[in-house]
C-alpha cells in the first residue's frame, strides 16, 4: 500500500479512545502493570486492529488532566464500534474499569470527519 492508500485506509477505520483514572486502592506501579497487561490482551482480540496505551500528564497547573490514561483502538475491518464496546474483551475490560472506580470514558473518532491537510 502506498502512502495515499494507507491514509485513505486509516481515515476509514473507526478509532475508539478510552480515558480513565488510576484506582486509589492500588499503587501507581501496580495499576500501571495491570493496565499494560490488560491492554496486551486487547491487542489480539477480535475486532481490534491496533491498540495503543499512553499515560497522560497535565499540560500545566492551570490545565489539570481529568484522566491518567488513554487507550486508542483501531477497529478492524468488518467489526463495528457497538459490537466492540458492548460484547467481548473490550466490553469486559470497560466493566472492570467501572467496578474498580476508574471512571472510563469512551469516544469514537471518525476519520472522515477530521480536517484534512491541503493537497
Feature tags:
119 residues, alpha+beta, Alpha-Beta Plaits, four-stranded antiparallel β-sheet, 4 helices, 4 strands, disordered C terminus
CATH architecture descriptor text: 2-Layer Sandwich
What is the straight-line distance between the termini? Answer: 19 Å
Q: Which structural class best describes the helix and strand composition? A: alpha+beta
Q: Count of DSSP E strands?
A: 4
Shape: globular
Count of helical segments? 4
Please tell me about this protein's structure.
This protein has a single domain, classed as Alpha-Beta Plaits. The protein has 119 residues and is of the alpha+beta class. The protein has a 4-stranded antiparallel beta sheet, covered by helices on one side. The two termini are 19 Å apart. It contains 4 helices and 4 strands, in the order H-E-H-E-E-H-H-E.
Please give a quick description of this structure.
This protein has 119 residues and is of the alpha+beta class.
Layout of helices and strands:
Blueprint: H1 3-12, E1 15-20, H2 28-42, E2 48-55, E3 69-75, H3 81-86, H4 89-99, E4 105-109
Antiparallel strand pairs: 1-3, 1-4, 2-3
Amino acid at each position: 500500500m502506498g502512502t495515499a492508500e494507507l491514509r485513505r485506509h486509516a481515515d476509514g477505520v473507526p478509532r475508539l479512545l478510552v480515558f480513565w483514572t488510576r484506582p486509589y486502592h492500588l499503587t501507581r506501579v501496580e495499576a500501571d502493570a495491570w493496565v499494560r497487561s490488560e491492554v496486551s490482551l486487547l491487542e489480539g482480540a477480535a475486532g481490534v486492529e491496533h491498540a495503543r496505551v499512553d499515560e497522560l500528564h497535565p499540560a500545566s497547573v492551570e490545565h489539570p488532566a481529568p484522566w491518567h490514561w488513554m487507550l486508542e483502538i483501531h477497529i478492524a475491518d468488518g467489526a463495528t464500534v457497538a459490537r466492540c464496546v458492548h460484547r467481548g474483551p473490550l466490553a469486559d475490560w470497560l466493566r472492570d474499569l467501572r467496578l474498580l472506580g476508574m471512571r472510563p470514558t469512551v469516544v469514537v473518532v471518525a476519520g472522515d470527519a477530521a480536517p484534512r491537510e491541503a493537497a
